[in-house]
């Protein structure tokens, strides 16, 4: 996939999950609060080209979506953290974002970082969407909260 198609697939996945999750949150609170989505991306380091373009794409999509009223009346709020492509930083950022109450995580790039955060994501029951990794660990065993966009080899 080209970068634009990849970005579009990720954005569509995030919006789909946000729409599903927003129904429960509105029903529980009685009002529409922002949907916080955690972004774990390599904004610095050797993978920065991917991470910075990914962040730019989701911010553009969120601005357009929020200007149109958000997802079921709820604005999207992306909480972005730089993991620099480092698994230890990805884990620390994941913990911080889960503690902040994000409804989903996205943006991870690279098998090592993805593999490092999987136990935390699964124990927190937070969906991990649009992963840029072909690692087999994402598919075997099947993972209920992991939505990958890159085929394995």
The main sheet comes to:
5 strands, parallel
Helix vs. strand class: alpha/beta
Tell me, briefly, the overall form.
Answer: globular
Number of helices: 4
Report the uncertain regions: 19-30
Portion in helices: 40-55%
Task: Tell me the radius of gyration.
Answer: 15 Å
- Strand-residue proportion: 15-25%
Number of E strands: 5
Order of SSEs, N→C?
HEHEHEHEE
Separation, N- and C-terminal Cα atoms? 15 Å
How confident overall, as mean pLDDT? 81
- Strand order of the biggest β-sheet: 2-1-3-4-5
Question: Could you give a short description of this structure?
Answer:
The chain is an alpha/beta fold and 153 residues long. 48% of the residues lie in helices and 16% in strands.
